[in-house]
Fold:
Amino acid sequence: MTEQLRIIFAASEVEGFSKSGGLADAARALPLHLKWLGHDVRIVTPFYRSIPENHKTKTVIPSLGIPLGSEESWCAIRYQEMEGTVEGKTIRVPVYFVEHEHYFFRRGYYDDGLHEYPDNATRFGFFSKVVLQLSRTLEWTPDVFHSNDWHTALVPFYLREAQQETADFKKCGSVLTIHNAGYQGNAPGTFRNSLGISPENFVEELFEDHGQLNLLKGGIHFADQVNTVSPGYAEELKTPLGSHGLHEVYRRKGQDFSGILNGCDYDNWNPESDSHLPARFSAADLTGKKQCKKELQKIFDLPELPEVPVIGMVSRLTRQKGFVYLLPALPQILRLKVQLVVLGSGELWIANSFDQLKQEFSNKLGWQNGYDNNLAHLIEAGSDLFLMPSLYEPCGLSQMYSLCYGTLPIVRSVGGLKDTVIQNGENQEEGNGFIFDEPDSDAVSDAVGLAVSIFYNHPQNFRKMIDRAMKQRFTWKTATEKYVTLYRKTLK
Ligand code: ADP
Ligand code: GLC
Structure:
């Protein structure tokens, strides 16, 4: 079964071009690894205004017409290769960008900073239609259309419709990967017309959800295979508590719904070679990590105290990440002998709370509101502990990065966090992090308190945990092989 597969990979963000979170990391790493394994994969993604100008994309299709309801909307297709390295080998993956000024030349990808764009369903419905139309225009039919999250969840639906109408795509399979089931692409039912969702498809088992359209829900039904990004989250999604309302839909998929743990991109996130850092380090020699810590304290204007543990956070500022119960716990945590550095962007109420805390704990809290990849690397490297108290976490990449930088994660026992971090147990023989269960302020304070007490009182144990953390590997190679198996299941 070594036959090469042809894959169209559709994603609303791809690292290097656009990124708001881990979806972008996955949408870069997985195609690079597919190519590295010998498969023919092509990415399709929107051409946002913010795509850095140094990307010399060229227009390959000047105009492509797409029917939207009774109208036709036009876009252009730009092209560029995405370059990356996998295990030292240079890999190039073709990327097609969908250029549509009205839909994608906006301040944000999904919102204007405060509110989601009201026409998101149309924007990404349009994008999903383009994915199929592009395949026709290029006369390049894939074996599998791989879509990601609600933004491209209509691809399997449009594929099924096309298969019923023409012979074009008869043999194509579809995979839908859910990186975050909390976002489902909800829209008023009136969007049906422009999206081409007929009344027969606007029913409870398909796209209808409490009178509204739910694009993810319909997409799950129509995709041949559905997966999410960790086995733990896949199990949670089948329960009323963890499913964001769609447990019946996941359960109905039976064997066609599974969990594949994301990999960690060790070519990009590696303390031994990370060019974002002032110094590099390895498990055998942590001297460089101390320099990173010093630099981190300097940048955040905190006292340069090597003996005080720094707790790092790099996060989207959103409810998912547990701020509702973390924020009330922070005064107590900040009264410990610790420093906390936080980098995040997102919801205003969370940013405002950090602004206020900063006034009270100016000597202990370093806080930057914004998105900064360099600083994200420095926080991963220079901190001693990394805090991720998520309410839910489909996989989580940041804790994987922190493990490999010897920055022990303190995480809540959910989804991918539970699948990747090993509790520091009684016998101290196997832990690489600290885990707590309840999503409440006491639980997170206690977990931080335990981590800090081991840092001060049992430095040798702490050091052994660092060694174990830095040895842990979650490779994209393993994940990619599982995706290939999933693709093969969809072949007709
Ligand atoms: P999620 O995708 O839910 O945001 P992950 O842990 O899977 O969570 O991935 C987050 C990714 O986004 C990581 O690569 C992290 O470094 C990055 N990231 C998040 N917030 C910021 C920020 N403010 N600045 C820089 N990078 C960020
Ligand atoms: C989502 C999830 C995160 C996951 C990432 C990549 O943004 O919130 O847990 O790691 O996608 O799959």
